[in-house]
Amino acid sequence: AQKITQTQPGMFVQEKEAVTLDCTYDTSDPSYGLFWYKQPSSGEMIFLIYQGSYDQQNATEGRYSLNFQKARKSANLVISASQLGDSAMYFCAMREGGTGGFKTIFGAGTRLFVKA
Amino acid sequence: EPEVTQTPSHQVTQMGQEVILRCVPISNHLYFYWYRQILGQKVEFLVSFYNNEISEKSEIFDDQFSVERPDGSNFTLKIRSTKLEDSAMYFCASSGRGRDWTEQFFGPGTRLTVL
Question: Is the pLDDT of residue B31 over 60?
Answer without folding.
Answer: yes
